[in-house]
Write a structure and sequence with these properties.
With 415 residues, this protein is α/β, with parallel strands linked by helices. The protein is built from 16 helices and ten strands. The protein binds S-adenosylmethionine (SAM). It is found in: Cytoplasm; Nucleus.
Length: 415
């Protein structure tokens, strides 16, 4: 076992600065990577060329797994500083071990959700997410620009010949993965909009693969969303609401019950629009249906001088980046007293990611002078049960997109 890993098992007590922190710092200073995995060490010890793929048990995993439950205040401080030290040296908050757990997931399993250790993981996740976004920004100049030929490029198949075989194989793999993602209706809007949908068994699903687009169990979340939209009405004689994403029409039916002056609904999928026609939504006197992607249909509202008391956003196959683009419009469309809310499923298939995004969204909204308040809602029990269990809502659904015990319902306003 490597010296670094041995240290992270925290076997020797008490945990002191001399025995742990100083030794950790020394190892990192000597160049041992903070992401050195147990699998790497095993491969090295056994003269294997490569470590087992798909599993990265990092020093952070070991610390989280080994944390004694009876630490003194001093010991806790040493461990927290060890975690800081690993992060400072590039440790990853979201690498996963053989059980598909991040270090945060290990803490959660061990009953340490909400602890100081947990908070360290969340903070590191937030920093990493914000940093990666900045690095993606092409306006950033790097001091030590890497020569372009050193950067592994995704090459076209016909240029592969003659290249180093390994690079070619990796490139081909990367290209294949990109193509798979491009065709995945859960991942790409253009692919989703071409995918046939079906309304069945209290859900809206993709016809072939049975990806859950919207499900009836979410009505409790939609109720909270609808209440937020009518929270602070500016003028009861002129109530404007905008909902982006019709799905099963759950929130729109709730909005209709409140009889707003104008109820805008933005929807892009042809099958959903067809269902809306069949169910008479196009003919309702206070409803305006914006047919097409919100990216095309919402911007014109800005120039028409329409302002909203409430805006709700719940689409499908979009990414956080899309939401950031929407924020640009929200500031222009929301009345000063208005409320914006959205289906908060950001990272909701893993609690640590969900809490990282809760913070990231707060930071992003703050840039617009918007503040967010999260109300906690307990989802129905059968939404928290794995698909194998009889009464689970995920039975027959391709992938459970919800796995968190608490829903953080967002209410966003200028206040
Ligand atoms: C999860 S469902 C919305 C469910 C809805 N909140 C309800 O209460 O039933 C998402 C909807 O957003 C639509 N959608 C996805 N991308 C869109 C886009 N870019 N513009 C407008 N609608 C979009 C989908 O077709 C789908 O009907």
């Amino acid at each position: 076992m490597s010296e670094l890993h041995n240290l992270c098992y925290l076997g020797e007590r008490p945990i002191t600065k001399e025995n742990y922190l100083d030794k950790l710092r020394l190892l990192l200073k000597k160049g041992v990577p903070s992401t050195y995995t147990v699998e790497d060490a095993f491969a090295e010890e056994h003269g294997l060329k490569e470590a087992i793929k798909g599993s990265t048990t990092t020093p952070l995993h070991l610390i989280c797994e080994s944390l004694p439950k009876d630490t003194s205040r001093e010991e806790e401080d040493i461990i927290l500083t060890m975690i800081d030290e690993l992060f400072l040296n590039g440790a990853g908050w979201c690498l996963t071990n053989e059980k598909d757990e991040t270090p945060g997931c290990v803490l959660l399993r061990r009953g340490l959700h909400g602890s100081k250790y947990w908070q360290k993981m969340v903070d590191a996740g937030v920093r990493a997410e914000l940093l990666f976004r900045r690095l993606d920004d092409d306006k950033i100049e790097f001091i030590d620009e890497i020569e372009s030929e050193e950067i592994p490029q995704l090459v076209e198949a016909d240029t592969i010949e003659g290249m180093d075989k390994e690079v070619a194989k990796n490139n081909a793999g990367l290209k294949e993965k990109t193509e798979v993602l491009d065709k995945d209706p859960t991942n790409t809007t253009s692919s989703y909009l071409k995918t046939k949908l079906a309304y069945k068994d209290g859900a809206l699903v993709t016809n072939e693969r049975c990806d859950g687009v919207m499900m009836q169990w979410e009505d409790i979340l939609m109720k909270a969303g609808c209440n937020s939209l009518f929270k602070s009405i500016d003028d009861p004689k002129e109530v404007n609401i905008l909902n982006i994403g019709f799905g099963m029409g759950i929130i729109d039916s709730m909005i209709q019950e409140r009889n707003p002056t104008t109820h805008y609904i933005c929807e892009a999928h042809p099958d959903v629009l067809q269902k809306m026609k069949e169910d008479g939504w196009m003919k309702k006197k206070n409803v305006v249906v914006l047919e097409g992607k919100w990216q095309d249909t919402v911007p014109p509202l800005l120039s028409r001088g329409i302002f909203f008391d409430g805006i709700y956003y719940d689409t499908y196959s979009e990414h956080y980046q899309d939401m950031l683009e929407l924020f640009d419009m929200i500031v222009g469309l929301l009345k000063p007293t208005g409320t914006f809310s959205f289906f908060n499923g950001l990272g909701a298939d893993r609690l640590i990611c969900y809490e990282v995004y809760k913070k990231v969204v707060e930071i992003d909204l703050d840039i617009y002078g918007l503040s967010v308040k999260f109300n906690e809602i307990r989802p129905p029990e059968n939404a928290l049960r794995p698909a194998q269990e009889d009464d689970s809502v995920w039975k027959g659904i391709k992938r459970a997109y919800w796995k968190c015990p608490t829903y953080y319902h967002p209410e966003v306003s200028f206040a």
